[in-house]
Amino acid sequence: MDRSRMLVGGLNLLALIAVSGCGSAGSTVAQGQAVQAPRFEVDPLWPRPLPNHWLLGSAVGVAVDSRDHVFVVNLTDSFNQRTEISAATNPPTGDCCLPAPAVLEFDPAGNLVGHWGGPGQGFTWPSSNHGIAIDNGGNVWIGGIGGSDSQILKFNRQGQLMAQIGKAGTAPTAAGRGGAAAADTAYAGVAG
Questions:
Q1: Which of 8, 19, 137, 152 has its CB surrounded by the most CB atoms within 10 Å?
Q2: pLDDT for position 37
């Protein structure tokens, strides 16, 4: 079992113990046996260093697929250009660094095994991508929270667009939910 599943399992166990109150955990303590809570340690080397002098922006979504690969969607424009990504300025003002692509895929050991994201042909990337989900078929769903983000994008694991639900730039719903209406529609595809 990899660390991400252990972490999720441990957190679920703690929540279950807290909710159950005096359930089986209480009876174990009553019998004189101490209950040992799981112990977690931070792995400072997970993920491994990124290639190409890339920096991870603000992580705004994390999902784990059936192979325990961790997908992270990050904001590629959350940096101070002068001090953090000077190699990305025009003209470059330094040798380091560059924003990482919007979607990064890590194997359980923390190695970068895939990356993609951003504007592409045939679709509009969210103005502020936010949130990521992996469905049972291994497809990756990306949403957004920007003012014009009223679409949900579905990609295969290599980053090829499979579907766009909603349309960028359309007005939010009467309830003021923006892309949430598209997300409601898309959920049927994720869950089904």
A1: 152
A2: 92
- Cβ neighbourhood burial of 44 (10 Å; 0-12, 13-18, 19+): exposed
Question: pLDDT value at position 79?
Answer: 79
Q: How far apart are CA 151 and CA 160, in angstroms?
A: 16
Rounded to 5 degrees, what are φ and ψ at 133? -145, 150
What's the pLDDT band for 25 if we cut at 50, 70, 90?
Answer: very low
Left (φ > 0), alpha (ψ -120 to 50) or beta: where does 117 sit?
left
Tokens, residue 113: 């095994």
Task: Return the pLDDT at 171.
Answer: 57
Question: For 100-124, what is the mean pLDDT?
Answer: 93
Q: For residues 145 and 73, is the Cβ–Cβ distance under 8 A?
A: no
Q: Which tokens hold the place of 171?
A: 């007005």
**Rg of the Cα atoms in the chain:** 20
